[in-house]
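Example 3.2
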Amino acid sequence: MSLVNRYQEVGYYTVNFNSANLASGVYFYKIQAGKYTLVKKMIVMK
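Structure, written as tokens:
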């Protein structure tokens, strides 16, 4: 699943995420910007 996959100018952005179709559990997400990559953990509880 990809929430945003396009070039964006420098700035602050918000993305709405609907987890209604995901089961409860631990998920990992990745943010990439040029050479910078960040991987974080997200917990979905229903």
